[in-house]
Amino acid sequence: MSTPHPSHNREISQVLAHYGLADGIGANAPPTVYRGFSGAEVYRVETVKGPVAVRRWPKDSLPRERIRELHRFLSHLRQTGLKTVAVPFACRTNPTETLVDHKGNLWHCESWFPGNSDLASRLTPFRITASLQALADWHLAASTFQPLIPASTWFSQSPQAAVPAIQERRVILQRWTPERVVRILDRLQFVQPNQQDEVWSKWVSEYLHEYLPLAPRIEEELNQAALWQVRLQPCLRDVWHDHILLDGDQVTGIIDPTAARTENVAIDLARLLGSLFPPECEYWNLALEAYQQKNSLSQTELRLVSVFYRSSTLLSGLSWIEKLIGGQQKLFKNPQVRDRLVQLLERLRQLPNYLK
Question: Which of 31, 40, 172, 247 has the fewest CB atoms in 10 Å of its CB?
Answer without folding.
Answer: 247
